[in-house]
Design brief:
The structure is a single chain. By secondary structure, the protein is mostly helical. Helices cover 66% and strands 1% of the residues. The protein has 51 helices and three strands. A three-stranded antiparallel β-sheet has the order 1-3-2, covered by helices on one side. A hairpin with a 5-residue loop joins β2 and β3. The longest helix is centred in the middle third of the chain and has 31 residues, at 625-655. It is elongated and about 125 Å long.
C-alpha cells in the first residue's frame, strides 16, 4: 500500500466558512470525559475507557448529521478521508478513535494553510508605527494550543506507543496509569495490522509537522516516540516466518521513506534534543538495574543499539556537533537546560564528564581515520572553553578538560597536533625560535591580539591548573613556552591585569609538576643564566591594550640615546629578578627554591674558579679587528654573567625565608657549595673575610645537625659523607687553625655516625645557635654537654638529658610563647640587657625580642625592672635599622599592656613634644606604639579617651606636615574603636576634620583627614546614624566639597569611598532588610 497522502484541498467556499474554532470544538468533543470513574477495578477502567471512546465518536457523528453549522466541517473531513488511503473503521475502537482524530488534525492543518494563503494584511499606518502588526489567522491561542497538545497526546498514546516492539522506547505501562490501561485495551488482532497502524500515525504526524505551529507542538513533546516508530519501521529486521497478507506488510518503498523521514527530522529538530532521545532509545549497557525504566532500556535490541550509535556519531560529526552532544547528555541528566538551576550539581558529577569525554575521544566507524576525526572535532572541543554564561561555562569547561585529558592519554600525538598546538599558537608566534614573516616585522604590528592572548592564558589555566593532571604530553607542550609566560607575568606585575594571577598559578603549577632537572633548567632560563632557553622574541614586546588586556607587538624603533636604552635594560632585568624571587617564594615547601639556590651557589663557585683562571690578555698585534671584537665581547659577557649571579643570589637571599631548605640533602649541598668555593679561593690565594665567615657558618650548621638538633638516620649520614673530601681539603689547606681543627672533628663525627663528637663540635653548634637567639645562653648552663666523651655516655646510659633546641625552635616566637614561663636569673637578665646595647644589629634586635617575650610571659625579673626596660625600648626607637626599632615598638606595646597607666602618660608626652626634643621620625614611631596600645586595649580604651584624643588633636596643629598626617591617622584608628563613647567629642573631631580637609596646604594631611572620615564611617557602620546624628550632614557636605573641588585624585578617591560607605549606611537605615521571623509563645 502506498504511503497515505495529505488530504486534498477542499473547495474554497467550504473552507471560508469552516473556521478553526469549529475544528477545535470537534476535537474537544472527542476528548470530553465520559462514563463512571468511581470503581477502582482494572476491568472497569478498561470498560469505562472503551465506552467513553464509543460515546465520543457517536456524539461527533450526531453533531455532523444534526447540526447545520457542522456540515461544512463534515464535508472537509469526508474529502480528506476519501484522499486518505487507510482503513478508518475497525473492530478496535481505539483505532477508529485514532483515525477520526487524525482526520480532524489534517483538517485543522489544511484550514490553517488555506487561511494563511488567503491572508493579506493591511498596509502599516505610518502615523502609528509603534502599533503591533496584524496577527496571522492561523495563530492558535494558549487554550487552543492546550487542546491540540491533548489531542496529540491521545494520538501518540493510542496510535504509536502500543505498537512499538519490546525494548524500543519506554513502554506505556511504565509511564502513567492511563498508559497501562491503554496497553491492555488495544486489540492487535483487528485490522489494520499493528505495523500498518504505526506507519499511518507516524506519516500523518510528520505531515502535520510540516506546518510550523503544529510541528513545534509535535516535536516538543513527542519527538522520541515518533523517532522510535520510524526506527522500527525503517530499520527493524524482517522475520519472514509466516507470510502475512500483502496489504499488511510494508513495502520496501515505505521502509525507505521511513528511513529518510527519520534522518530528516533528526536534522531539523534542536540537536541536543535529538541526542538525548537517541541516547534514551539506545539504552545503557547490560547491568543490574533498580529503576524500572532502566531495566527496560537494558533489553534494547541489538539492531536499535547499533542504529542509535550510528545516528549519534552522525550528530557528533555535524557542525557544532560536540556542543549538541554535550548539551544533550547534560540536559538529559536531570539538570534541565545547560546552565540551569541544577547546572552546578551536574558540573560536580565527574562520572557524566568522564562519559562524555570517552564518547568524544572514541573515533566513530563513520570517520575515515582517527586523524581526520580529531581534525574535525578538536576545534569544537576548544570552543567549549569559551562560553560567557558562568554556569554553562562551568559545565562545558569540565567536559572540555576531561576530554582533553582523555584524548591526550589515549592519542598523545594527535592531541598535541590538533588540541595543544592550536591552543598555544598565540604564544608560539612570539618565541625566539619562531620565524616571523617579513610582512609582520613592521614596528607596531600586532602579532597577538588582546582577545587571543587572554583566551590562550585562560585556556591554559583551565587545562593545566584546574584539571591538575600532569600528563607528559601536556608538560612537554608547555615547557618551551615558559619563558614567554614568565615575561608576560613580569609585564603584568607592572600594572593591574586580570591575567596576572593566572600566569602565576600556571608557572607555579608546572614548576612543581616538572621533573626537578627540567624545572631548574626553566628557572635558569627565567634568570638568563641559560641564554639558550626559549624566551620572548627579541623583536617582540608586550603592550597594554585598549580594553585592559595585553597585546604582543613588534618593537618600535628605539631612540638614539644609549644611556636611556641602557637604563631601560638594567631596570627591566632588575624587575625580572625581583619577580623571579617573588615566584620562588611560593616554591619553598616543595624544595624547588632551595635546589635553585644551591644551583646558584655552585654557579658562584664556578665563577670564582673561572675568575682566577681568566684568559690572559691577547698580544698587542691582533690578526684582525674581528678577533679583537670577539675578545671584547667575551669579556663583557663574562662580566655580565658574574654580575647576574651575584644579583640573583642577592634577590634570593632577600626574598627567601629561613625555611628555604626542606631536607638534609639540600643543607648538605649548601655546605658543599660553600666548602668548594672556599677551597677554590684558597687555591688561588684569594681568601676574604666574608668567605671566612660564610665557611664558619656552614661548618657550624653541620655541627648543629650532628649535635642533635635534627634526628639523623643512616641514610642522612650517607649524604653527609659527601662532605668528607671537602672537609679534608679544608683541614689541610685552610690557614685558620680553629677551622682546621673543626673540619677534622666534623670528619670524625660524620665517619662515626655521631658516636664520637668532640667538644669543638658542640661549641661550634652552640655558637651558631647563639647567633640566632641570645636566649640560648640562658639555657646553655642547664643543658648537658653533648658527647664530650664516649665513656660518660657509656657510664650513664639511663640518664635523661634535655634535647638541644633546633634552630627552627629558637627562631619561632610562637613556639617560645607557648612554652611555660620559667624563672630568669639575674645573670641571664643582665646579659640580655647588655646585648640590647650591642653595636651588632642582629644581636641587639634579638635581645630586644627576648625582652619582649619575657614581658609577654610575665617574667617576674623583667616586670620588676619595667622602668629600665621602658628606657631601653625608647632609646632603641631612635635606631635607624628597621629590625631594631620595630622590635622596640613591639616591646613598648607589650610593656604598656601590663602597666598602661604608668607608661601611657610618658608616651603621650613624648609624642606631644616639639621638634627640639625629638626628631619627627621618633615621634612617628611613638605614634605607632600608641596605635598598637589602642588596639590591644580594645573596649578598655574608653578609660584613656580624653588624653589620647587631646594629644592627637594637638598633633593636628603641629607645624610638621608629617606629624599632622600621623596624628590624623591615629585619631581615625581611635575613633573607629570608641563607638558611642565618641559622642561628647564628636563636634570637636568633626570641626578639626573639616578645617584640615579644606584649608591645609599639604596634600598628605588632606588625604589623612578624608581617610579619617572613611575609618569613622566604616567603624561605626549602622551605629553612625546614632553616634554622628548631629554632624552627619556636615560630614556629607565636606565629602561633596572634596569630590567637587579637591585637586588631588587620591583625596577624591578617599572621599568617594566615604560617600559609598555613607550611602550604604543610609540605605540600610531607610530600608532595613526584611527578616522573616515567626514568634512562638508557649502558654504555661
Amino acid at each position: 500500500m502506498a504511503a497515505p497522502q495529505p488530504a486534498a484541498a477542499a473547495p474554497s467556499g467550504d473552507l471560508e466558512t469552516c473556521g478553526l474554532e469549529r475544528i477545535l470544538e470537534a476535537l474537544k468533543l472527542l476528548l470530553s470525559p465520559g462514563g463512571s470513574g468511581s470503581s477502582s477495578l482494572q476491568n472497569t477502567k478498561h470498560d469505562v475507557l472503551l465506552e467513553t471512546l464509543k460515546s465520543n465518536l457517536s456524539a461527533l457523528e450526531a453533531k455532523f448529521l444534526k447540526d447545520d453549522q457542522w456540515k461544512k466541517l463534515k464535508v472537509l473531513r469526508d474529502e480528506i478521508a476519501n484522499k486518505a488511503e487507510w482503513l478508518q473503521n475497525s473492530e478496535d475502537i481505539t483505532w477508529s478513535f485514532t483515525s477520526q482524530t487524525l482526520l480532524l488534525l489534517l483538517s485543522l492543518k489544511e484550514t490553517m494553510t488555506r487561511l494563511v494563503a488567503d491572508f493579506s494584511p493591511d498596509a502599516p499606518n505610518l502615523r502609528t508605527p509603534e502599533a503591533a502588526p496584524a496577527l496571522s489567522p492561523d495563530t492558535l491561542s494558549v487554550s487552543q494550543q492546550k487542546t491540540v497538545q491533548s489531542v496529540l497526546q491521545f494520538v501518540v498514546t493510542l496510535g504509536v506507543c502500543p505498537y512499538l516492539m519490546p525494548g524500543v522506547g519506554v513502554p506505556l505501562r511504565y509511564r502513567t496509569e492511563f498508559g497501562a490501561v491503554v496497553q491492555d485495551v488495544v486489540c492487535l488482532e483487528a485490522a489494520p495490522h499493528a505495523t500498518r497502524r504505526l506507519y499511518i500515525c507516524c506519516r500523518v504526524l510528520l505531515d502535520l509537522a510540516q506546518h510550523a505551529s503544529l510541528g513545534s507542538l509535535i516535536f516538543c513533546r513527542h519527538f522520541g516516540d515518533i523517532a522510535a516508530g520510524l526506527c522500527q519501521l525503517g530499520f527493524c529486521p524482517i522475520k519472514r516466518k509466516t507470510p502475512a497478507p500483502v496489504e499488511e506488510v510494508l513495502t520496501e518503498e515505505e521502509r525507505t521513506l521511513s528511513r529518510g523521514s527519520l534522518r530528516d527530522i533528526l536534522g531539523q529538530v534542536y540537536q541536543p534534543l535529538a541526542v538525548r532521545e537517541l541516547l534514551i532509545l539506545q539504552g545503557g549497557p547490560p547491568q543490574t538495574c533498580t529503576d524500572v525504566k532502566t531495566q527496560l532500556r537494558c533489553h534494547t535490541p541489538a539492531w536499535l543499539r547499533r542504529l542509535c550509535g550510528q545516528l549519534l556519531s552522525e550528530r557528533l560529526m555535524r557542525p557544532n556537533g560536540v556542543q549538541a552532544v554535550v548539551r544533550g547528555i547534560l540536559e538529559g541528566a536531570g539538570a534541565g537546560a545547560a546552565g540551569g538551576s541544577d547546572a552546578e550539581a551536574t558540573a560536580a558529577d565527574w562520572k557524566k564528564c568522564d562519559l562524555i569525554a570517552k564518547i568524544l575521544a572514541s573515533c566513530p566507524q563513520q570517520s575515515l581515520s582517527p586523524e581526520s576525526y580529531y581534525k574535525d572535532i578538536c576545534p569544537q572541543i576548544l570552543d567549549l572553553f569559551h562560553f560567557q554564561d558562568k554556569l554553562t561555562a562551568r559545565q562545558f569547561q569540565r567536559v572540555a578538560t576531561t576530554t582533553f585529558i582523555t584524548m591526550s592519554s589515549e592519542r598523545p600525538e594527535l592531541a598535541s597536533k590538533y588540541l595543544l598546538q592550536p591552543m598555544l599558537a598565540p604564544l608560539h608566534r612570539c618565541l625566539t625560535t619562531a620565524e616571523i614573516p617579513e610582512s609582520d616585522m613592521v614596528p607596531g604590528t600586532i602579532l597577538v591580539t588582546e582577545e587571543e592572548l587572554s583566551r590562550c592564558v585562560e585556556d591554559v589555566f583551565k587545562l593545566y591548573v584546574v584539571a591538575n593532571d600532569p600528563l607528559p604530553v601536556l608538560l612537554d607542550a608547555l615547557l618551551p613556552l615558559l619563558g614567554v609566560l614568565f615575561s608576560l607575568y613580569c609585564f603584568t606585575k607592572q600594572s593591574v591585569s586580570h591575567i596576572r594571577s593566572l600566569c602565576q598559578e600556571i608557572l607555579l603549577w608546572i614548576l612543581v609538576k616538572l621533573e626537578r632537572k627540567k624545572a631548574i633548567a626553566s628557572l635558569k632560563g627565567f634568570s638568563r643564566l641559560d641564554k639558550a632557553a626559549p624566551s620572548l622574541h627579541p623583536q617582540c614586546q608586550f603592550r597594554a591594550a585598549m580594553h585592559g588586556g595585553i597585546v604582543i607587538t613588534i618593537k618600535e624603533t628605539t631612540s638614539d640615546d644609549e644611556d636611556e636604552a641602557l637604563y631601560q635594560k638594567v631596570s627591566s632585568e632588575q624587575s625580572q629578578m625581583e619577580h623571579l624571587g617573588d615566584l620562588l617564594s611560593h616554591c619553598q615547601q616543595c624544595g624547588l627554591a632551595g635546589d635553585f639556590f644551591i644551583v646558584c651557589l655552585k654557579e658562584l663557585s664556578h665563577l670564582v674558579v673561572e675568575n682566577e683562571a681568566e684568559v690572559k690578555p691577547m698580544p698587542s698585534c691582533y690578526t684582525s679587528l674581528l678577533e679583537l671584537e670577539q675578545y671584547q665581547a667575551l669579556l663583557i659577557e663574562d662580566q655580565e654573567r658574574k654580575l647576574l649571579v651575584l644579583q640573583l643570589l642577592a634577590v634570593l637571599c632577600e626574598r627567601m625565608s629561613e625555611q628555604i631548605f626542606t631536607h638534609i640533602t639540600q643543607v648538605v649541598d649548601f655546605v658543599a657549595a660553600t666548602l668548594q668555593r672556599a677551597c677554590a679561593s684558597l687555591a688561588h690565594e684569594a681568601q676574604s673575610t666574608v668567605e671566612s665567615q660564610t665557611l664558619s657558618m656552614s661548618m657550624g650548621l653541620v655541627a648543629v645537625m650532628l649535635g642533635g638538633a635534627v634526628q639523623l638516620k643512616s641514610c642522612d649520614f650517607a649524604v653527609l659523607k659527601q662532605l668528607l673530601p671537602l672537609l679534608e681539603k679544608v683541614s689541610n689547606t685552610y690557614p685558620d687553625p680553629v677551622i682546621q681543627e673543626l673540619a677534622v672533628d666534623l670528619r670524625i663525627a660524620i665517619s662515626t655516625h655521631g658516636a664520637f663528637s668532640t667538644e669543638a663540635v658542640s661549641m661550634a653548634a652552640q655558637s651558631t645557635l647563639n647567633k640566632k637567639d641570645p636566649e640560648w645562653k640562658a639555657e646553655e648552663e642547664q643543658q648537658t654537654s653533648y658527647g664530650t666523651s664516649t665513656e660518660v655516655a657509656q657510664n650513664c646510659p639511663e640518664q635523661e638529658q634535655d634535647p638541644p633546641r633546633t634552630s627552627q625552635e629558637s627562631t619561632e616566637p610562637s613556639t617560645a610563647t607557648s612554652q611555660p614561663p620559667r624563672n630568669v636569673t639575674t645573670q641571664q637578665f643582665q646579659e640580655v640587657l647588655l646585648s640590647a646595647y650591642d653595636p651588632q644589629v642582629p644581636t641587639r634586635a634579638a635581645a630586644l625580642r627576648t625582652l619582649s617575650r619575657w614581658v609577654e610571659q610575665r617574667e617576674a625579673r623583667a616586670l620588676e625592672e619595667q622602668k629600665k626596660l621602658l628606657q631601653i625600648f625608647l632609646e632603641n626607637l631612635e635606631h635607624e635599622d628597621t629590625f631594631v626599632y620595630l622590635s622596640a615598638i613591639q616591646g613598648v606595646a607589650l610593656l604598656s599592656d601590663v602597666y598602661p597607666e604608668e607608661i601611657l602618660v610618658d608616651l603621650l608626652a613624648k609624642y606631644d613634644s616639639g621638634k627640639d626634643k625629638h626628631t619627627p621620625e621618633t615621634r612617628m614611631k611613638v605614634g605607632e606604639v600608641l596605635i598598637r596600645i589602642v588596639r590591644a586595649l580594645g573596649d578598655m580604651v574608653s578609660k584613656y579617651r580624653e588624653p589620647l584624643i587631646h594629644t592627637f588633636l594637638r598633633g593636628v596643629k603641629d607645624p610638621d606636615a608629617t606629624h599632622r598626617a600621623s596624628s590624623l591617622a591615629n585619631l581615625g584608628e581611635l575613633c573607629q574603636r570608641l563607638d558611642f563613647l565618641l559622642g561628647p567629642v564628636v563636634h570637636e573631631v568633626t570641626a578639626c576634620l573639616v578645617a584640615v580637609a579644606k584649608t591645609d596646604s599639604d596634600v598628605q594631611v588632606r588625604r589623612a583627614a578624608i581617610h579619617v572620615v572613611v575609618l569613622l564611617l566604616r567603624g561605626l557602620s549602622q551605629k553612625a546614624t546614632e553616634v554622628l546624628s548631629d554632624v552627619l550632614k556636615d560630614l556629607y557636605h565636606l565629602l561633596k566639597h572634596v569630590v567637587r573641588l579637591e585637586p588631588d585624585d587620591v583625596a577624591k578617591l578617599h572621599a568617594q569611598l566615604a560617600l559609598e560607605e555613607l550611602d550604604e549606611i543610609m540605605r540600610n537605615f531607610l530600608f532595613p532588610p526584611q527578616k522573616l521571623e515567626k514568634k512562638i509563645v508557649v502558654l504555661l
